[in-house]
Amino acid sequence: MVKTWQCGRFEFPLDRPVLMGVINVTPDSFSDGGQHVAAEAAIKHARQLIKQGARIIDIGGESSRPGAEPVLAKRELDRIMPVLESLRHADVALSVDTSKPEVMKVTLDAGADIINDITGFKDPKAQALVAEHGRCGVCVMHMQGEPRSMQQAPVYDDVTAQVFGWLAQQAQHLVELGVSASRLSLDPGFGFGKNIDHNYQLLRDLDRLVALGYPVLIGVSRKSMIGAVTGRPVDQRLAGSLAGVIAGVYRGARIVRVHDVGATKEALDVWQAVEFGPKEHT
After folding, report:
1. 44 tagged catalytic
2. pTM for the complete prediction?
3. pLDDT recorded at residue 37
């Protein structure tokens, strides 16, 4: 069982949850698309998330919402690099949300600490790149299909066995290539080629993924699985998102990727007070 997650310049103890704040430098992401497409707005928002308690900032330059069209690597880098360079000296780990090996290389060379790949490093070039790097954190996510079509009709015989089994195999493959287990985290990919029942089954069974021994990352913030249960539009899903985070953390998730860092930190502070004893706010 991995006790700390190695991410470039940082090592995160996994006895308590680590907050990853989301920065989408895109015009079309499902939740905050267009809000931070200008670098200045994205940087300002990232600094707010850091103040609220984010230990990791996850920067994305290409939307992965259902139906999203791909963008060229140069365009993706044009969006990501100003934010990455501005935050490079902040006391926060910098994650880049990309599936393109060329984007991975440029951002790692520029100081990124983590690569978060929604395709789970299926590309052999991406596998080789993170293996050669030696220190960056590696987020392996499961996705059935591709963003343009993944939500049209996702089908599984046994969603838990298939998703967790694929993640286990991919993690083992990366370890065999030279990626140390302490650098890996696994993400079941809520909403990426899964229907509502699939999503809640995976969340219900999350302890089975945790049992593999790798840090587990979850991203349920504002997603359609929350809206389907609460009936709320995307900008009114905070309460449901917090419930989803707590359910995941209770089952062993230790990295939580969220939009609402401040509120999530408060919810986790209360959960941790129940589990470990209260720590007064200072």
Report:
1. no
2. 0.94
3. 59
